[in-house]
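Person: Show me a sequence?

Helper:
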Amino acid sequence: MNFPENLKYTKEHEWISVEGDVATVGITDFAQGELGDIVFVEIETKGQTLAKDATFGTVEAVKTVSDLFMPISGEITEVNPALESNPELINSDAYTGGWMVKIKISNTAELSDLLDVTAYRALIGH
């Protein structure tokens, strides 16, 4: 399993990459592996400002539907357009092509609540 060290992680298995005041968010390689083949992603929150831990969308796999949670507060400024026709990008490329949303960060202090790669590996037992 792949866990890039430059990313931050949540206990709900999202990853976050921060560049300036913009964060890119997706689900981890562990999460997509647990879900199985992803067949649909629904994110209808573009343009909305959501609180940390709020649901920003869902991901549907063959076996289940899972909520997606905001790792930090902010406005969703972009949704990955490739996921509409190719949701399986999350399975094959969770950290690059399979990103889900970009967020304009509201509260940078919340970044300190995120897990580093060591803490995330401990959480999932890897």
Q: What stands out?
A: The mean pLDDT is 96. The CA atoms of residues 58 and 83 lie 12 Å apart. The first strand starts at residue 8 and ends at 9. The chain has one domain: 8-108.
